[in-house]
Amino acid sequence: MAPKTCDIRSLPNETLLNVFLHATAGIFPTLLEHPFPNLSLQTELERIANAPLLALSRVCSRWHTIAVGTSTLWSHLHMHGITERALEQTIALLTNHLERSQNAPLLVLFKGETFDRHPPHPRIFNLLAQYSHRWETAHFICSLKGVDTSALRGRLPCLKYFTVACEVRLQHCKPVMPLDFLGTAPCLTRIVAPAPSLLHSETLRTIRGQVNNLSLIVLPLHDELHTILRLASELPDAAQLYLCFDLDPSILPQNWDPALLLPSITSSLKVLGCRVCSAGVQPAPHQLNSVLSQLFDSLTLPNLEGLDLGYEAYPKFTLSWAPAQHSALLGLCDRSAWGRCLKTLRVSQVRVSEQQLMEILSLLGLLEGLEVGDLPSDEEMPLVTDSLLRAMIRENSGQQIQLVPRLAHLVCISRLAFTPKLFSDFVVSRLTTAGAKFQVSLYPAANSDPDVFVESTVHVMLRQLAVDNSCFSYLSGKRHRWMKL
């Protein structure tokens, strides 16, 4: 008997929807990927048109009905400012896309043709604004200066996540970008924006009452940081606050005073991120050390579960770690009793010494997730070494582990400066407790040869260990995946 074949047109609707969703997902770039891959006018027009989905819709009338008539397949709209070169065609495609989304909540991403100052064309922005009552997520990777945003006021009933980001010097010059319309978004819980646009607007009241995930691009100025610290004490319980400091000397005022005289603040933050985002010139170490030291000295965070320290320009730059910063962080840890609350620590982009790291870890008895890394340069001493592994190993089944006894996930960016067998023994020792599960994510340090890394002894040993022990999971690859906070 001849084998039965299945006509592709007879696939169930659920299967077709999964196929169509996969097709549409392939044309959406990563939010902050710069530039967009395969950037060209034709590519970006096809992105707005949802070209892969339209191609599938031509198979038969049933496929066409599902592809064109399913609103969720048209609910993501990613567009680039280059399409303004074909403005009439862009408006037509955008109108069709928005109409086909029917009543579905929208994710809107607009990226300016130039990152520094290119806002959306007024006709494009006004068309998007007509559908703002359905915006659930809106990302504008461009400047909004000069854009009339008045049409958004009172028309953002579904908005939960909003981003506006552009070249830093534009974010802090007067007048600031108008974001008062966010004050009328009742469901808003997450914002990424330059600090001045929020701290001196009606939106501040909304942030205090409902936003639980706030990312601010900050100049370390006295008034600005004072306002941010007061805001940190007023955010909802278990909020996440990410501060990205720009210390580019071309941005800072000529008379900038690093003595910020910050007030003492207690906050119920769940997650704190402190990063440096000066993409051009690396700031003077004493400036960076002063800002972070004063920030740590001013805070008490008794409910903190996640801490992220790093540098946006990594691996080009790494975060320096002076004795003053280290001492201030230890004081914050002791004052906030992090030994009873902190569960995740990310310091893979910090130029911390092994001794400093071990001193920090000795205070974090409940830590479950740790991300550490060797610095890219071979001239720097490696951080992940045999001595660090020995301090985290249980040599006998009844022995108490010296450091982070509850560690369940280690992310390690490494130059492989440790003994492979010792790393394997470290993993095995973490699995000796009945029912214990452990995960390792191991990635090559920047400037390392990824092919050599993949063929390394420790990589082979850990892969085999994951096969032999179902309680152990191992992730690796040429590209680093960040630990989630």
Automatic annotation (TrEMBL):
State what protein this is by name: F-box domain-containing protein
Show the Gene3D superfamilies listed in the entry.
1.20.1280.50
Q: Which domain of life is it from?
A: Eukaryota
Mind telling me which InterPro entries this protein's record contains?
F-box_dom
Provide the F-box domain boundaries: 8-79
